[in-house]
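Field guide to reading this record: the first block holds the primary sequence, the second block holds the structure written as discrete tokens, and the final block holds curator observations. Each block starts with its own label. This record concerns Beta-lactamase family protein, catalogued under organism Streptomyces spinosisporus.

BLOCK 1 — SEQUENCE
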Amino acid sequence: MTTPQEELLPATRRALLHRIAVAQAEGRAPSLTATVVRGGRAVWHGARTSVDGHGPDENVQYRIGSITKTFTAVLVLRLRDEGALDLGDPLEKHLPGTGAGEATVADLLAHSGGLAAESPAPWWERTPGTLRPELADVLGEQPFLHPVGRRFHYSNPGYTLLGALVEKLRGARWEDVLRREVLEPLGLDRTSTQPQAPHAGGWAVHPWADVLLPEPAEDLGRMAPAGQLWSTTGDLARFAVFLTQGDDRVLSAETVREMREPAAPSEAADVMDGAAYGLGLQIQRRDGRLLVGHSGSLPGFLANLTISVEDDVAAVVLANCTSGPLLSSVGADLVRIVAEAEPRIPDPWRPLPEVASSVLELAGPWYWGTHAFALRLSAGDGLSLGPLSGSGRRSRFRANGDGTWTGLEGYYAGELLKPVRRPDGTVSHLDLGSFVFTRQPYEEGAPVPGGVDPEGWRGIAQSPTTGTPPVSRETWRTT
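BLOCK 2 — STRUCTURE
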């Protein structure tokens, strides 16, 4: 339930309904259902169906395909946070003998492990998982198509390996670990590996005639961690809140933020499309808006989860057809409609609690050579450094507790920011990964790039007749 302040305006609700109605009609989907999340809870649900009086609500299950991968990634990151593995570990360290052991855990999460996109024929999505009882059956004789870590290449077998890794380190089946460690803590009781009534049936729609063909719902067996799950818009709405805010019972806010950061090398086409991949999450820039989430498809079903963290809006869209509406576009449009019609109202500005004088004295303008930067202290971002105008390197910083800070993003991610003090305790300059920031441009006496010319700053006299600066032989030689 939502309070009146959280409900969407009638015009916004109508725009959302119109968007999914167009998607269902033009995409010829037997049914399409969607939920929008704002402020940490579902604020709108809509559905369109070809059967009068049977519009699916937010508790009807659909198969969600590759959104399953995000759940598997959560399990792997839980193991990392507990210290059971490191993302840089080669798979061989924990799961020997696969033939794909040189790929690291991070490579597999980000689809940069060099593995094939699919398992060997027959097509795994439309055949029983019993045809691939072992990992060797999933990987085939030549698992690698590309050098490990060199390029993004989406791989379903890669997530099968991650599921097997979870089983090995937990000593339990992937689905049991998922239920115990993610579904139950987050209250996702309508998410399961097998369909539970009420659930939609999967259909193929003839490309040239308005007729249907039922699709089989195969158990994927070993491939389950890549695409097995069934869920609802209600459950996925709650999952979207988790992927935005974190939940210490499952993963911290810091770790889900890490999932949302690009982690795979991008192809040229991906760069042009504004697309990237994090740790189990797809990332795209659309209409100037950064979106994260995941899409999914299996015979008979399409699914999409789209989140704009900055706008605090998410959308879930599910349909029961093999092909038809482009749900990634629908999800992005639902987010855009809400974000533009009812933009997020920022939290009230609040002053910081007490700040140590040794930190406060760092605030203000600094110069790297002649480039002007500002170091700011704020309740929202903590310590941040960025150019005073225009574009340039900028980052937020995390305090280390010893008077230094570590960069959190961009060029300075992981770099150490250290105030360097004079014998009297005053700050001489900032050292940021060997970059020296001073209070004055090229400040005299400061380390490189301070000082430079002992004569200091000066102008160049103009010629009284031509208005051009006279250039001596000595000056010419140095220019």
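BLOCK 3 — OBSERVATIONS
The CA atoms of residues 163 and 224 lie 8 Å apart.
Residues 1-5, 475-479 have pLDDT under 50 and may be disordered.
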